[in-house]
Specification:
By secondary structure, the chain is α/β, with parallel strands linked by helices. It folds into 3 domains: 33 residues; 210 residues, Rossmann fold, CATH 3.40.50; 185 residues, Ribosomal Protein S5, domain 2, CATH 3.30.230.10. It contains 10 helices and 22 strands. The chain has a 9-stranded mixed β-sheet, with helices on both faces. Strand 15, helix 7 and strand 16 form a beta-alpha-beta unit. Keywords: ATP-binding, DNA damage, DNA repair, DNA-binding, Hydrolase, Metal-binding, Nucleotide-binding, Stress response, Zinc, Zinc-finger. GO terms for molecular function: ATP binding; ATP-dependent DNA damage sensor activity; damaged DNA binding; hydrolase activity; zinc ion binding. This is DNA repair protein RadA.
Length: 476
């Protein structure tokens, strides 16, 4: 008989220390996070798992009780909106955001609100001392008898606190600061984050504890640590905001219990963080008269319509290469709108400096704001203001046509609720005429459907003098 071949040693595996990406051979640059020198060799373990006792027998899905997993309000309505109804017992939630955006302030408010409903809450801080958190709690009126506070960075000690306190809500600030003894790597590394997150999620599921983990982000805005962290948790939330603005938004990127297209609006001030049920007033400036270079757009943040004012300044340039500066808008969409206005509307803008921005730090990256941007640019270029109380909605194509946008009835209803009188929107796809359709009334607001951007400018009495066209505008 031939001699048995000796068992082959396991092939070496290589793993990125930044994101956890694995490859069969060494490379100098990670193929996932593109970091240099982070791929190191790790031994590939060979495991043989035998059958083991089950924790609970399998039952028909219709016999599984759902009462224990019912939504419970977090005390913050805007956060409940994003989560799909509230906090679910046993759910693992990951909240990520840039430093200083207000993650700790928001979660301290959630912890205090939960404690006010007689639900014991444990807040574990690994970045601050307990006295620092107490000072912030005094400032934001978040001191409650059922809110327990612990400053720990060791996973074993954290689990002991959970065993002794038996909370309903557990907040970890942050998961990158917690380390597990006996595991290679430093806290915040790939191996440590995976072990800590797995242990906390296991405790959350077995004890029905709602667990919120605070996560750091990298310089490009993605969540720091291994990608598997986002797969392990039930909900992934991003906390967004501009440092120069008090406005903050919580956006759901993953949600096993609700929609992923919802956003919550907050306002951060010296006394803490407050929910903003109607944030439109933050992004629309109140002018006393007609001002050239402004127009109001209606954008959708998740399923919520928000009105935002677009401002533009077009002035002759003394430079060989005119400047194009945008703030809160997509620079590529702005360049596209400028090219369409010059090619299809007869406006000479190539020799002018163009500055475009939004009011209140709003970020408009949706194509539905193209028409409002075009109206603001033409209004500034001609020195003529658009009619008062007008909104413009529509995506501009390269041929100068206007394309329909989603959720148009919701956008119009929100604009009508806020007192706008005229709306210029794209025409239905079947309309081939170059003229505007007769206006119709929606909730007391006149809605004018136009097929292209040139017709929209005619309707708003902003037809360029350079093109030599005669306005065919109705009376407003």
């Amino acid at each position: 008989m031939p001699a048995a071949r000796p068992a082959r040693p396991p092939k070496p595996a290589y793993r990125c220390s930044e994101c956890g990406w694995e490859t069969a051979k060494w490379v100098g640059r990670c193929g996932e996070c593109q970091s240099w020198g982070s791929v190191t060799e790790t031994a590939a373990p060979t495991l043989r798992t035998a059958a083991a006792p089950v924790t609970a027998p399998a039952v028909p899905i219709g016999d599984v009780a759902v009462e224990t997993s019912a939504f419970r309000s977090s005390g913050v309505p805007e956060l409940d909106r994003v989560l799909g109804g509230g906090l679910v017992p046993g759910a693992a939630i990951l909240l990520a955001g840039e430093p200083g955006v207000g993650k700790s302030t928001l979660l301290l408010e959630v912890a205090a609100q939960t404690a006010r409903y007689r639900h014991r809450t444990l807040y574990v801080t690994g970045e601050e001392s307990a006295s620092q958190v107490r000072l912030r709690a005094d400032r934001t009126n978040a001191v409650e008898p059922e809110l327990f506070l612990a400053a720990e960075t060791d996973l074993g000690a954290l689990l002991t606190h959970v065993e002794q306190t038996r909370p309903t809500l557990l907040v970890i600030d942050s998961v990158q600061t917690i380390g597990a003894s006996g595991i290679d790597g430093v806290p915040g590394g790939v191996t440590q984050v995976k072990e800590v997150a797995a242990a906390l999620i296991r405790v959350a599921k077995t004890r029905n504890i709602t667990t919120i983990l605070v996560g750091h982000v990298t310089k490009d805005g993605s969540i720091a640590g291994p990608r598997v962290l986002e797969h392990l948790v039930d909900v992934v939330l991003h906390f967004e905001g501009d440092r120069n603005s008090r406005f903050r938004m919580v956006r759901a990127m993953k949600n096993r219990f609700g929609p992923v297209d919802e956003v919550g609006c907050f306002q951060l001030d010296a006394t803490g963080i407050e929910a903003v049920a109607d944030p439109t007033g933050l992004f629309v400036e109140q002018h006393h008269g007609r001002v050239p270079g402004t127009c109001v757009a209606v954008t959708m943040e998740g399923r919520r319509p928000l009105l935002a004012e677009v401002q533009a300044l077009v002035t002759p340039s003394a430079l060989d290469k005119p400047r194009r500066t945008v703030s809160g808008l997509d620079s590529s969409r702005t360049a596209l709108v400028l090219a369409v206005l010059e090619r299809h509307c007869g406006l000479r803008l190539h020799g002018s400096d163009v500055f475009a921005s939004t009011v209140g730090g709003a970020r408009l990256h949706e194509p539905a704001s193209d028409l409002a941007l075009a109206v603001a640019l033409v209004s500034s270029h001609l020195g003529e203001a658009a009619p008062t109380g007008t909104i413009a909605i529509g995506e501009i194509g390269l041929a100068g046509e206007l394309r329909r946008v989603r959720d148009l009835p919701q956008r119009l209803a929100e604009a009508a609720r806020l007192g706008f009188r005229v709306a210029v929107v794209p025409a239905e796809p079947g309309q081939r005429s170059s003229a505007a359709r007769p206006a119709r009334t929606v909730d007391g607001m006149r809605v004018i459907e136009v097929p292209g951007v040139l017709t929209a400018l005619d309707v708003l009495r902003l037809t360029g003098r350079e093109a030599g066209r005669v306005p065919r505008a109705p009376e407003f």
